[in-house]
Design goal:
The chain is α/β, with parallel strands linked by helices and 230 residues long. Helix content is 37%, strand content 17%. The strands form 2 sheets. The protein has a 6-stranded mixed beta sheet, sandwiched between helices. Strands 4-5 form a two-stranded antiparallel sheet. A hairpin with a 2-residue loop joins β4 and β5. The two termini are 13 Å apart.
Length: 230
């Protein structure tokens, strides 16, 4: 049995594809792109909400499109602003950071600071079933830093439990992305000790995004968490 967590927080960095009114002119003619995975993570906020409700835990989310500003990237990442926003003057970029980036990230960091440790942070994302004409075999990816024991132990437990309740799903570690790539959990690991914080990014294949699938996945995640939290 793995060590239990005292607290949990659930976040969703790509919860929506909203464009604030003052920036709508940047996206004239870009409706199709905004609706695609490039604009947000379809289905992620539904699973995050269902799971947060089941666990009676706070949910933090950013519903401004990642094409305006990317809430899941470090402050110095060149991908923070997309081709739609990167040519904006520096003062406008800084205004956007102050409006949408820092309030979201700082609220999550402050909340984790206030929680009893150790804290489990689940960051809910979805990914496209196919990229560059290559079908992705992963159904649910558990992204973590293998050098952090708390995260490794947690994901080993989640993998076993999810495999039992979702036997037809391929559950993979650090797929379709590496858990140590730039992301919000990666940043938060620099702020909290290994034994105090486990940041796990849950990546769900978008082929599972009927309402029934969302419910099924959230139930399985909740069941998988019970021994770690209850």
């Amino acid at each position: 049995m793995h060590s239990k967590f005292s607290s949990i927080i659930i976040t969703c960095e790509h919860a929506g594809n909203n464009v604030p009114k003052e920036y709508q002119s940047l996206f004239d003619g870009a409706d199709r792109i905004l609706q695609s995975h490039r604009g947000w993570d379809p289905g992620a906020i539904e699973v995050a909400r269902l799971l947060a409700s089941k666990r009676n835990t706070p949910l933090f989310y950013c519903d401004v499109t990642r094409l305006l500003i990317e809430a899941n990237r470090a402050i110095d990442n060149t991908q923070m602003f997309s081709e739609y926003s990167k040519s904006l003057p520096d003062d406008i970029k800084e205004k956007i950071r102050q409006q949408y980036y820092f309030p979201y990230r700082n609220s999550v960091e402050s909340f984790i600071q206030s929680l009893t440790k150790p804290v489990l942070h689940l960051s809910i994302h979805t990914f496209t079933p196919e990229l560059n004409n290559v079908k992705r075999k992963t159904d649910i990816g558990l992204l973590f830093d293998p050098s952090r024991k708390l995260e490794s132990d947690c994901c080993a437990h989640l993998c076993v439990k999810l495999s039992l309740t979702l036997p037809s799903f391929q559950i993979d570690f650090n797929q379709p992305y590496a858990g140590i790539d730039d992301g919000f959990t990666t940043y938060l690991r620099t702020k909290f000790a290994d034994e105090d914080y486990a940041g796990i990014e849950i990546e769900i294949n978008q082929k599972y995004f009927s309402a029934d699938d969302q419910v099924k996945i959230s139930i399985s995640l909740n069941d998988a968490l019970k021994e770690l939290l209850d």
